[in-house]
Amino acid sequence: MAVENSGRWRGLRTALVLLAIWEIVGRLDLVAGGALPGISEILIRLWVDWGDYPRHIWATLYASTIGFVIGNALGIGAGVIFALSPTALRLFRGVNIAAFALPPIAIAPILVLTLSGMAPRIALAALGVYFVTMTATVIGLSQADSRATDVIRAYGGTRWDILRRVQFRGALPSILAGLRIAAPNAVLGAILAEFGGGGRWGLGAYLLGSLGRGEPDRLWGIGLVATLIAGLSYGVFALLASRTIGATRAVTLNTAVPDAAPVTSAPINRIAITLGTIALPFLVWWAFIKLTGVPGLISKTPLGVVDYLFFAPTAESAQNRLLAALAETLPITFVGMAAGLGFAFLLAISSRLFPRAIEAFMPVALVTQTMPLVALTPLLVLILGRGTSLTLWVTISVTFFPAFVTLAQGLALVPRSAEDLPRAYGAGRWTEMRMVTIPASLPYLFAATRLTVPRALLGVMIAEWLATGKGLGNLLNQSRGFLDYGMIWTVAAVSVLLSVIFYQAVVIVERRVLRRLGMATAE
Amino acid sequence: MTLRLNRRRFLGTAAASAAATSLPLRASAATPFTMQAAWINDAEFAGYFIGIDEGYYAEEGLDLTYLSGGPDVIPESTIIAGRADLALTTPDTTIKAIAEQGAPFKIIGAQYQKNPIGIVSLVSNPINEPKDLIGKTLAVPPVNVISVNAMLALNGIDPSQVNIVPYAYDPTPLIQGEIDASLDFTTNVPYTINQQGVEATSFLLYDFGFTIYNDTVVVTEETLATKRAELVSWLRASRKGWDENFKDPNIWPPKWADTWFAGTGRTIENEIFFNNAQQPLMESPAGYMAMTEEGIDANLRALSEVGINGTRDMFDTTLLEEI
Pfam families, per this entry (chain B) (predicted)? Predict the structure, then answer.
């Protein structure tokens, strides 16, 4: 306990030191000729502008709260169904992976086209929440104490009784832990949709309106308020969790889509379920369009996209533009992902060797994760320019923290006895790392890779959209302006598909490698 | 629809007085009519704000709902989706959509006779004409890249000689010298930059051969067929609003500090400058919102330079004649 407390103070002290450095650097206009104002200048500006804020904050809170509630209702509902029915879980695997892997930036324009008013913001917020809560629910429910369920069964209790009396109670800590991650996701989702969705109120809308003013202190102020809201929403649920269950959990959840235990059934059934798994996301897409009733010129069904890309008179030009964009986007996505993972890995290893230094660094890392990317990118442009380095830094910043947390958790779980063995033979810390800790962390490296796939694509596309004018992000932005609806849907579909394929590829490699090494998949 | 109403109700209670005044005036028994603007609330739409506040639309029997735009709102999408009856658009994207995708649009009026977009640069590093752009970095909203390429081609410049990067409507990179010029509304941005203590200069694409309108009034063919009377009423009330606005462009912006312009993050002085600067770009011998045959012809010629092949029948001037 004492160690933990001193770590916390250390974190606070580092934060204060960093704030002081920020203030000095900002005051002296050392970064990009004043693009980074001092923290006091930002706060003063915030005070001056404060009259503008309440309505913008309310609009953002409104959309994210409703999205949070809807997303959680869907997530918990689906989680219960999946926990009860392995078939449903298997059937919805494709939908779940898509929900996890879709880069929000790619589907924001689609939501804006097909829904009106606050609905796109709510939908994007709900999407950010669904996967986290669903996973937490499935895991929580399936970890029920079998002795307790046996007691209920012995007394003649039904499946529902077990669910209500044992499983839900057992799942509560897991679900609450999920809500902590889900809350900031809802806020960030709502802001992203505001940024791309028009409308007068909301922090994203305010940011857009203020971009044209050329006043970095205000932009930073809006960014800080957004960060604060996202951070507070995390804090509220962290507090709630620790109050109700007296337990604290990790900052991120597992990234594995919950998988049903293999069932030995007829091959025909298995094939049917696999086909259903693949078809279902497209069915959901098709149903979404039919339900919104938006005219076909704007909304494209899966068949519409195929037609646009292969059979329409403009198909060849569309293919060329898409391939050119992919050729620009994919390499940098992989490089950024590798760099983010590498950075996270190094940091996780160092955190074993120099725990104090890393603890101090954590608050800063946490803040960068709650700052909306759309707010951060224009500011980074002023510091880094519009080249490849900007795209890389944006990508690293969105991937490294979640990867780091997953890896650090994994390293912390390496059994002491295994570490003691090389030490007993006189090995140094590095040798011990090399022989035990690093190999043992392999499952977590895979888990971290799964987690970073969609985030890397999101980072690259946002940088392309806002700064570099290249690749998929720019194609999406340009197509919106040219009313090229076919291309908007195509880019969205392709980017989701790529994320899903890459996610699956990681899963397959992971299973092979870990099976050969006799290790279990990390959650 | 219910969602939007809920949002209104929410905003109304959240910020009762201020939000309430920004809601469209509603007269009883009037025909509901919705317009989608092209940008966030600024002086660009002063005429419509006057029409709403002074009841010009209500007098015409219209219950007007005004939807603000923004860099990420595609006005044409709103009318295709049926969420608005009429949209203010840029003619290049509209005509491109009609010509290449068969979008069912008609242009029934034009707010700007001369498109206000131009190349903005700093006096300390001035770009006074297209050829000054060679070897420079120019920030352009991705939508306008074809317009800039057209203007460069019209002036004998190979577009590959200019480094074009995306523009997010933020003048900071220009002020910091990260870019040399940007494409933006010349009615507005030079003043914004001057407020930062740096002097800016600009020229219109229009004056270098890219002779198109802006904020063209666009409707779907279906709306044109079913709501013709309302459209004529809207044009009449809007012209009245603009007439009133330009009697003295300095009067109106300050009145909207807490209503139309609340929360946009811009100063009223900026809007007054804007309102004055846009007058010469909007005036037409045929009255505000007009489309003359020469004007239409100039649009089609400029667009054909970009490979957008518009035709005269994409414009319908008969409604203007009915005003």
Answer: NMT1
